[in-house]
Specification:
Radius of gyration: 19 Å
Distance between the termini: 29 Å
Bound molecules: zinc ion
Number of helices: 14
Structural class: alpha/beta
CATH class: Alpha Beta
Strand content: 5-15%
CATH architecture: Alpha-Beta Barrel
Oligomer: single chain
Largest sheet: 5 strands, parallel
Length: 294
């Protein structure tokens, strides 16, 4: 029997969580029934180590991340602050040479919404110079520290030829816990568009969340069964998943209470598990710069 061909543009134009919901629910029970066009971007925020401000997460953590990615033959995106690149340019040249994407996490690790327009512009232009000098490239993507991009940030990203931003954190309850003083901002973010969309000429690709964000907390804390259920829950609503962890999630941080209770070893082992699971669910892995609105 001849298969009916749906033109690609029509297929993608539908509201994903309505039309795909049945097949996605069926897919939970029958993984041989692959849901089409599911994409996953694995991303890492590379910055000075939590508490100590050292760079072991760059010199040691990245190595561990690369080992896992290599094992699964997955290309990832590394949102990096420029101090890390200036200190260890060869590590980032190596990441780029392996086909991963290096994108910008800020000139230094500082919130963007606390800076004046002039200061923001200065940081972005210094960052572009740093990428050009050390990596011979212009960064395409930006993720603001602690999800702190604002309207001015989007205008500047456009002015400086970025193509996407991944700073927004919709449906993310952790923002209220970690940043209780920024209630208004947290509310606005919580109810912002959770699907990839355009803001002027910049594509906003929000990090995935359904009350809890798809971050290192998931592999660090949850048992495998809950991780699977959580991924299936996310996949019911979203066709594109954006996972992120920090470079310091992959090293021992003595001063960190969470690391002492839920070791970084769990992040390492369970990221390996999550990547296998996403692949078994037929997710296609992409870097953020390869993302296209469809
Ligand atoms: Zn950060």
């Amino acid at each position: 029997m001849e298969q009916i061909k749906i033109p690609k543009s029509d297929y993608y134009n539908h509201v994903p969580y309505r039309n795909d919901l049945f097949i996605k629910i069926a897919n939970i029970f029958n993984p041989h029934l692959p849901v089409k066009n599911m994409r996953a971007a694995i991303t890492f925020d590379v910055e000075p180590d939590l508490h100590t401000e050292g760079y072991r997460s760059v010199t040691e953590g990245i190595l561990r991340i690369l080992q896992i990615l290599n094992k699964h033959k997955i290309k990832a995106t590394f949102f990096t602050t420029c101090d890390c690149i200036e200190k260890y340019p060869s590590i980032f040249r190596g990441i780029k040479a392996k086909g991963h994407e290096v994108a910008l996490h800020g000139y230094r690790h500082e919130r963007f919404d606390d800076l004046s327009l002039l200061e923001k512009e200065k940081r972005i232009s210094l960052s572009i110079k740093c990428f050009k000098k050390h990596l011979k490239m212009h960064p395409k993507g930006f993720r603001a520290v602690q999800h702190s991009s604002d309207a001015d940030t989007f205008r500047l990203l456009e002015k400086y030829n970025f193509s996407y931003d991944s700073s927004r954190a919709p449906l993310n309850l952790l923002q209220f816990i970690f940043f209780p003083k920024r209630m208004k901002r947290n509310f606005l973010d919580f109810f912002s568009n959770p699907f990839p969309h355009k803001i002027n000429n910049i594509i906003e690709i929000p990090t995935s969340s359904f009350l809890l964000p798809f971050v290192s907390l998931v592999p660090r804390v949850f048992p495998k069964l809950i991780q699977k259920l959580y991924i299936n829950l996310l996949a019911l609503f979203f066709n594109d998943l954006v996972f992120y962890a920090h470079s310091w999630d992959f090293i021992k941080v003595e001063e960190s209470r969470i690391d002492n209770k839920f070791s970084h070893e769990r992040v390492i082992n369970n990221l390996d598990f999550i990547l296998s699971y996403l692949r078994s669910k037929k997710f296609k892995f992409i870097t953020m710069q390869d993302y296209r609105l469809i």
